[in-house]
Amino acid sequence: MIPSVNPSGSDTRGLLYYLYDTGKHEDHTDPHLVASFDGMSPDPGRDPNATLTDLQQLLDQPVMALAKHARPAKHVWHTSVRADPGDRILSDEEWAGIARRIVAATGIDPGEGQPGCRWAAVRHADDHIHIVATLVTEDGHRPDDFRSGARAQAEARLIEKELGLHQVAPGDGTAAQRPTKAELRKAERQGRERTPREELRETVRRAVAGATSDEEFFGRLAAAGLLIRKRTAPSGDLLGYKVALVGDVNAQGELVFYPGARLAPDLSLPRIRERWSADTKEAHAARKEEASRTGPSTPASARRGTASALWQAVLVVDDGEDAVVAAYIAAGGEVLDALAKTSAAHTRRELRDAATAFERASRSHIRAVRGHDRALRQAARDLVRGGPALGRGEDGATTAMAIDMLFFLITATAHWHARKGHAQQAAAARQAADHLRNAYRTAAAHPLAALNERGRRLRRTVAVRQSDVLRSALPELAERIIAEPGWYALAATLADVEASGHDPGALLGDAAERRELDTAGSVSDVLVWRLRRTAGLPADASSQTANTPAAKSTAHRQDRRTGQTGPRRARK
Predict the structure, then answer these.
(1) Rounded CA gap, 519 and 507, in Å?
(2) How far apart are CA 204 and CA 453, in angstroms?
(3) 3-state secondary structure string across 38-52
(4) Which terminus of the chain has a smaller tally of CB atoms within 10 A, N or C?
(5) CA angle in degrees (0–180, nearest 5) for 432-436-439
(6) Where are the alpha helices (DSSP H) in 474-567?
(7) DSSP codes, 284-336
């Protein structure tokens, strides 16, 4: 059950008109009062003799009784209270009880002989009610409604338990601000999928990913087409910023700017600067030297490097100190943003949805200690510098490799948040993991199919040797892995590892020991990517046919180890 409090309205009748209107909104059916401050308020929905003006004047009476100069400019308090889609349909009497508890808990009408405000609860759909109140008590004072939103949420958690409803994870005040009703209606009128606030939040997040200075950050915002206003001190020092979408104006035709802190708590300029302020001069120098030595990153090399950084990050999230873990989780969000920005179209939507979900999991009351997360932030930077990736070849295969590693980092994040009691963050991380799982299936389909085909065509002696290696290295998992559809891809990879001069058993044991595999949908898939990354093998093996030099070299090495010579022949 979600209460959504908006305490800053100024037009009681306008709000009542919206609540009782059935012409523009499909879910506005049979609007009627379920409760009010006195239990006798006129109901324009059910009483043909009652009007909206009658109800408005009754609610506004304490306000109008004040001298004109003493009336609050914004005197309307409003909240919607919405049940979960899976909940049963509540009766009017149950909704009435919920309304009374919400206004009491928030200080709007505390009861027990204390003066309260006038209010009315309107139901115009099965799954929610709206409560409208005027913020002057019967004795002419302002109610004690401080933090009414948080108080409404706390009461809703109690109501859920008592009525046997879906229990929403309690919040901790670190979530980004939700779009208002007005913003949602405006987006709907303009034909937008998301509100400007949500679009700006995502664009700013992506601009932050891997950035190392104010100049780079603002340059990315400008390149993304945002309008920027900077706030400076008299000394000329930059203090903050606001951003707006081109063409997003208010009723007066003025551009609507949002400060970074109103997009998300960690997008204010001081919080953004924390990401690179921990970099030492030596780190900046090393970064410049690395860039000059290696040249621009390619999409495939950036993804391979990202997979390695993510692999190390999983170990930190599992066992690190809380402040360091918080930094790694936040930096993991930057990697996800960068990957979503630069990946091919067939995986971009799921990755973007994963990044949007994970945004909630990237913040908690545990303040991140920056600096330790430098490798992940560099990986995000390399992804952006590497540019858009193709959906095929080495680009596509290394995308699958990176997503696979990122899935384990985000799964570890969900476990960490759950241990800390961060229910909303844990739920958000699990939701992001679901999107990553879908993106992985799309990205991995072609490269794994090619590896599976190669695995099926291995010589029998080679295939038997690889299964022996598996049983020796991972005796407890071997039979499960061999029964998986992906076993042939792993067998082909083990053969490639052996042909490249590595010990496949040692690498296989190391790949399995360094992270639990219970959360893997396919253990063989996970081991394929870990082995190919560790051994430096191409992620895309689709071009390795029997006629390529690489394949001939591999076959020759394999035959030399088994004592066989001559060309391969199909065995019946």
Answers:
(1) 21
(2) 43
(3) CCCCCCCCCCCCCCH
(4) C
(5) 140
(6) 478-482, 487-499, 504-513, 523-534, 549-562
(7) HHHHHHHHHHH-SPPHHHHHHHHHHHHHHHHHHHHHS-HHHHHHHHHHHHHHH
Written as six digits, the tokens of 480 are: 């499960």
List the domain boundaries for the chain: 2-163, 181-275, 281-443, 457-562
Considering Cα of 393, then 288, then 323, then 319, what sign does the dihedral take? positive
pLDDT confidence of residue 286: 53
pLDDT score of 486 more than 80: yes
517 pLDDT tier (thresholds 50, 70, 90): low
Residue pair 338/384 in contact by the 8 Å Cβ criterion: yes
* pTM (2 d.p.): 0.76
Kindly state the tokens that stand for 495: 């053969």
d(CA 330, CA 327): 5
Contacts of 479 (CB under 8 A, 6+ apart): none
CA 217/CA 267 separation, integer angstroms: 11
Among the residue ranges 252-266, 317-331, 535-549, the one predicted with the least confidence is 535-549
Q: Which two tokens stand for residue 184?
A: 């949602």
Contacts of 462-466 with CB under 8 Å at 24 or more apart are 462/495, 462/558, 462/562, 463/491, 465/562, 466/490, 466/491, 466/494, 466/495, 466/498, 466/504
Q: Give dist(CA 188, CA 12) in Å, integer.
A: 23
Lookup result for tokens 């200080």: 107
